[in-house]
Design brief:
With about 625 residues, the protein is α/β, with parallel strands linked by helices. Helix content is about 40%, strand content about 15%.
Length: about 625
């Protein structure tokens, strides 16, 4: 009997390939479907890794949206996209869900190339409202009347871009629905039968019809009408302000619907039905959900399960992997704590990622010198410039892909004024399974051309320590980029050596070829040189250390002496390290030198493991060896 029931449960999700299929299921069966979806998500992510807690928290919300709205004609834009796994399962990707985040498999984020239900590619916080507003305005021009729906979290909605979108949305008064997914109760704990009841009332047709007629009537009363309207409106807003936190959204021009239970299908479907009919005005519905819902380890520790590698489903404990070993992020955190003990001017900043950037230890030891500004990279940079202006030594720790968001602030507020701000650029290079929106492959190109900026990359733990120590002693800005994953290199001691500014290091000497490499590609270049030696080709291998200032003397010397150069970088080739070497040769009028650059071609790199992607793009030792051999023999 139990086996029969299990088969029936499996069949429910198996019936669904589209929102049209979903609508054939009775509303009473939706909780069973939610249970099935959670089981599939947990099973899959335990094997592939991924963003578990946020996706488990939005299962009911996702089902209810597709159940009530007419997707994909009605468009759903998922901010960031961490929470989109249930969405993928019920929109035709169930049979491929086991390939989540694997090379040639489905992405961990919404992708337009995967499905017509994915209407906008996402991966960075705060983009959804602006994009959705653009779609809503475009529909006006086309005289279409589909609903445009945003699902955005309580952290993402605090970004400056999100507020810019909200501000214009209220002014344009378009057909826009914003679902605020409050999964940390950071805005309001007002959840319960009363607030859910009031929410259904305020979105109902009768309420809105009477409300509109009453307000129009008050304004039409001769002489006293406008003043009476203002009194009633102020009283209404004061009442709302007493019981809900939505007055700000009301002032921005939204109809605000106070918090409802995000795991209660009755509350969700009734409100969605009502909101679906509220045309020609922007609406913000506040939904409270629980991260990790339905999986106790994720409910207990949603931060760990926000983004996690493969784990034991029964215990919730991650399997030991390369990324669980000592990594560059750990080293950075340890060095920051060590240096802060010696210099009380050092302060640390991050943008909503204290754990991800390794600053938890610093935060615990020096809470008064630690700042987490939330998802606000632009503010973090300008705030750090203000700290530096008053004599402090700020270190801003951000992932490479998120540092992109603050380019103007780096240029205008730090470099132009030559403030001593240190940028710890984590996850630089190929990141892996998170894919194109998260690969850190552009920072060398957009940092190295900024005046006053020192840009460097360590080959191992000891160099990361030395570079951070040196950067904090400079009188201007500096950036240190390092990869995701374990520390590479031989066993080392913990004594910080001094690295001369702009000076490279020769690791191997040979007369047939000069290989200039940077950062985490230095040791693979050494291995490639040893493979070349087996072919009778002897290469000089240079650990360049610095992208700016470059070791011009060594580059020119080897170019004239050897005449053949290969550069290796885990960055796009356009404007990167290899381009910088070419510029030096042109600057010093060195002719006759042949050069081959190895790096990422002009494309966005897809999702897959770091090891696989480095092999595909010729950035491992075998790839460097093959390119160098072909270069020499062509």
């Amino acid at each position: 009997m139990e086996e029969k029931n299990n088969k029936e449960k499996i069949k429910l999700l198996d019936q669904i390939e589209s929102s049209a299929d979903l609508k054939q299921i009775s509303e009473q069966s939706l909780p069973q479907l939610a249970e099935e979806i959670r089981e599939v998500i947990i099973d899959t992510v335990s094997q592939t890794g991924g963003h578990l807690a946020s996706s488990l928290g939005t299962v009911e919300l996702t089902i209810a949206l597709h159940y009530i709205f007419d997707t994909p004609q009605d468009k759903i834009i998922w901010d960031v996209g961490h929470q989109s796994y249930a969405h993928k399962l019920i929109t035709g990707r169930r049979d491929r869900f086991h390939t989540l985040r694997q090379y040639n498999g489905i992405s961990g984020f919404p992708r337009r190339t995967e499905s017509p239900y994915d209407v906008f590619d996402v991966g960075h916080s705060g983009t959804s409202i602006s994009a959705a507003l653009g779609m809503a305005e475009a529909q006006k021009y086309k005289e279409e009347d589909n609903n445009i729906i945003v699902v955005i979290g309580d952290a993402s909605i605090t970004t400056g871009l999100a507020f810019e979108g909200l501000n214009q949305a209220g002014d344009l008064k378009g057909n826009l629905i914003v679902i605020l997914n409050d999964n940390e109760m950071s805005i309001s704990p007002n959840v319960g039968a009363l607030s859910s009841y009031l929410s259904r009332i305020i979105t109902g047709k009768a309420y809105n019809r009477v409300h509109t007629r009453l307000m129009d009537f008050l304004k039409s009363i001769p002489s006293i009408g406008p003043r009476l309207f203002q009194v009633v409106k102020q009283a209404e807003e004061s009442f709302k302000g007493l019981i809900v936190p939505g007055l700000l959204f009301e002032e921005l021009g939204f109809t605000y619907v106070w918090p409802i239970q995000g795991h209660n299908f009755k509350h969700l479907t009734e409100n969605f039905r009502n909101i679906k009919n509220l045309k020609k005005r922007p609406v913000l519905l506040h939904v409270v959900t629980n991260k990790g819902k339905g999986y106790p380890p994720a409910e207990k520790d949603p931060e760990t399960f926000h983004g996690i590698g493969p784990f034991d489903k029964e215990t919730g404990k991650p399997y030991k992997s390369e990324n669980s070993l000592k990594n560059y992020t750990d080293v950075f955190g340890d060095v920051m704590a060590d240096l802060a003990r010696e210099d009380d001017r050092i302060v640390a900043l991050t943008a909503g990622m204290a754990t991800g950037t390794g600053l938890v230890k610093f935060k615990q030891l020096f809470p008064e010198r630690f700042y987490d500004v939330g998802i606000a990279e632009e503010h973090a940079i300008t705030f750090s410039a203000g700290l530096a202006a008053e004599g402090l030594r700020p270190v801003v720790a951000l992932y490479s892909t998120f540092l992109q968001r603050a380019y103007d602030q780096i240029l205008h507020d730090v470099c132009l004024q030559n403030y001593p701000v240190v940028f710890a650029v984590d996850r630089a290079g190929i990141v892996g399974e998170d894919g194109s929106t998260h690969q850190g492959l552009f920072d060398l190109s957009f940092l190295r051309h900024l005046p006053n900026m020192v840009v460097m990359a360590p080959k191992d733990e000891n160099e990361l320590r030395a570079m951070l120590n040196m950067a904090l002693k400079l009188d201007g800005p500096a950036a240190i980029r390092y990869p995701r994953g374990k520390v590479e290199g031989v066993e080392i001691d913990t004594i910080m050596k001094t690295i001369p500014l702009g000076k490279s290091e020769i690791l191997l000497e040979g007369s047939d070829l000069a290989i200039f490499s940077i950062g985490n590609r230095v040791l693979p270049a050494v291995s490639a040189a040893k493979l070349l030696a087996e072919k009778g080709i002897h290469a000089t291998v240079v650990n360049s250390r610095f992208i700016t200032p470059l070791d011009e003397e060594l580059i020119c010397s080897l170019a004239q002496k050897i005449g053949k150069i290969v550069t290796v970088e885990e960055n796009v080739l356009a404007g990167g390290f290899g381009s910088a070497v070419l510029e030096i040769l042109e600057k010093h009028h060195i002719e006759g030198t042949r050069i081959k650059r190895i790096g990422i071609p002009g494309k966005f790199v897809e999702h897959g493991s770091q090891t696989f992607l480095r092999g595909k793009y010729g950035l491992d030792d075998t790839g460097i060896f093959k390119v160098a051999l072909s270069f020499l023999t062509s």
